[in-house]
Design brief:
Elements (H helix, E strand, L loop, with lengths): L3 E4 L4 E5 L5 H18 L4 H17 L1 H12 L3 H25 L3 E2 L9 E8 L2 E5 L7 H13 L2 E5 L5 H14 L6 E3 L7 H6 L3 E7 L2 H14 L2 E5 L4 E5 L5 H13 L9 E7 H16 L19 H16 L3 E4 L14 E4 L6 H4 L6 E7 L2 H9 L8 E3 L3 H10 L6 E2 L18 E2 L4 H6 L2 E8 L1
Parallel strand pairs: 5-6, 5-8, 6-7, 8-9, 10-11, 10-15, 11-14, 13-14, 15-16
Antiparallel strand pairs: 1-2, 3-4, 4-18, 9-17, 12-13
Helix pairs in contact: 2-4, 2-5, 2-6, 3-4, 3-6, 4-5, 9-10
């Protein structure tokens, strides 16, 4: 894939960028390595001042940044503005909380025969971030804000279709005051990631993206014995039981499926509805999905914009068409729209069987799969019948059912009577083939720290 801004609403190539050469990559790693030597000794107060300055700049430029995100990957302008402001919140959260989150943890010195004993968090060094296009600023900010406040320095290899977003993040951090070399964007293809990760000056890596990308980075890092955090795909269940508030469950289900034009790892994808309310839920859900307005993502009245890439739309089409050929029923949508750009309509599919690819594979587009469950046991069984384990949603007014879902759904996150989302204050990540490690909260900032045991006699 070329490193280029290609407008998904039209298919037009707006701007192309030259990839960094091997020598330029080496020079960037050298700058990062040299900068870490002194940056790691800066105070939390100094880092926080730079981070707050970057947050202020981003907040002031939120409209322009939103337009850039919409141009590069097609999210609606409304959701792009919300993402920009969420990044401001992420910057400020770690600026304000990092020192407390990384404070020394005292131990019982007398118990271990010491005068003092404690655990200390210290930065690892140069960290590589390989980031996806679907939340082009937020995905990178939640890494950058934590890594920089912990005293690490960062190298960003962003997705090739959002180069302007990638360059903007490095620029706004520099304008905020972070010294040269603290955070650099590398405009490189995926094939160049190995050069960076195998460099002995690079201490660790984090990746958000596809399973194959995660496997590749994990394999290289494993060979080099370097720490990694992976956030990969998701096929999140959305369970609704008879005691749920059906109005809220249906309305939220629509947003949960089509957020970001359906291109979110934590979007609800498999809707598992108790048989007593299945028909009513599906009918109401289909009506709302079919009524969504698909169109120009810069139009404030648009609900769903185009998919980010032409290949992404092709992948969605293949899964839907194969399921239909094998007996699945399309209740709305199901065919690409006849217009320029990479549009695919909100789609609802029923009568899916376990031998269909649609049952097991993640659909990265506005396609909802519907499943009928006889009882809570079958609902949990369907929810867990996937190789993924990122997020999950369950709707029920019954306290015992809520506890069952909390205990038995196999996922890194469970949201009861609400839509899965990310908060700076809560850990974010998955299990199974959705990856390992956590971002955000105290857990996220500590991922790229050495937890050093200190014993003083």
């Amino acid at each position: 894939m070329p490193i280029a801004t290609i407008n998904p609403a039209t298919g037009e190539t707006v701007q192309t960028f030259n990839p960094a050469t091997s020598a330029e990559i080496d020079a960037a790693i050298t700058r990062a390595h040299n900068r870490f030597a002194d940056y790691r000794r800066t105070s939390f107060a100094q880092r926080a001042a730079w981070m707050h300055a970057a947050a202020d700049l981003l907040e002031a430029e939120a409209d322009e940044v939103a337009a850039m995100m919409t141009l590069e990957m097609g999210k609606t302008l409304v959701s792009a503005k919300a993402e920009a402001l969420k990044c401001v919140k992420g910057f400020r959260y770690y600026a304000d909380q990092a020192e407390a989150l990384l404070a020394d943890e005292p131990a019982d010195a007398a118990l271990v025969g010491a005068s003092r004993a404690y655990a200390r968090y210290q930065p690892l060094g140069v960290v590589l971030a390989v980031m996806p296009w679907n939340f082009p600023l937020w995905q990178a900010v939640r890494f950058a804000s934590a890594a920089l406040m912990a005293g690490n320095v960062g190298l960003l290899k962003h997705a090739s279709n959002v180069p302007q977003c990638a360059l903007y993040l490095a620029d706004v951090l520099a304008r905020g005051g972070f010294p040269d070399g603290c955070f650099q964007t590398l405009l490189i293809p995926s094939s160049a990631v190995e050069q960076v990760l195998r460099d002995p000056r690079v201490a660790a890596a984090t990746l958000t993206g596809s399973e194959p990308a995660g496997q590749s980075v994990a394999a290289i890092a494993g060979d080099e014995i370097k720490h990694t955090v992976l956030e990969l795909g998701g096929s999140d269940p959305y369970i609704v039981m008879p005691s749920a508030d059906l109005d809220k469950a249906v309305t939220t289900a629509v947003t949960a499926r089509v957020q970001n034009n359906g291109q979110s790892c934590i979007a609800a994808k498999r809707f598992i509805i108790h048989t007593d309310i299945y028909d009513e839920f599906v009918d109401r859900f289909v009506d709302k999905m079919a009524a969504l307005r698909v169109g120009d993502p810069t139009d404030p009245d648009t609900d769903v914009g185009p998919l980010a890439t032409e290949q992404g739309r092709t992948d969605v089409e293949k899964l839907v068409d194969a399921a239909v050929a094998e007996g699945a029923v399309v209740r709305c949508g199901g065919k690409r729209l006849d217009r320029p750009g990479w549009y695919y309509p909100p789609t609802v599919i029923t009568d899916i069987t376990r031998d269909m690819a649609l049952f097991t594979e993640e659909v990265f587009g506005p396609v909802a799969s519907m499943y009928r469950a006889r009882d809570i046991e079958e609902a949990i069984d369907i929810a867990n019948a996937t190789t993924f384990g990122l997020g999950s949603n369950a709707w029920t007014g019954d306290a015992a059912e809520q506890q069952r879902f909390i205990d038995d759904i196999e996922a890194g996150q469970v949201f009861i009577n609400g839509m899965t989302t990310s908060y700076p204050e809560l850990p974010f990540g998955g299990i199974k083939r959705s990856g390992y490690g956590r971002e955000l909260s105290a857990h996220g900032i500590r991922e790229f720290c050495n937890l050093k045991t200190v014993w003083v006699g």
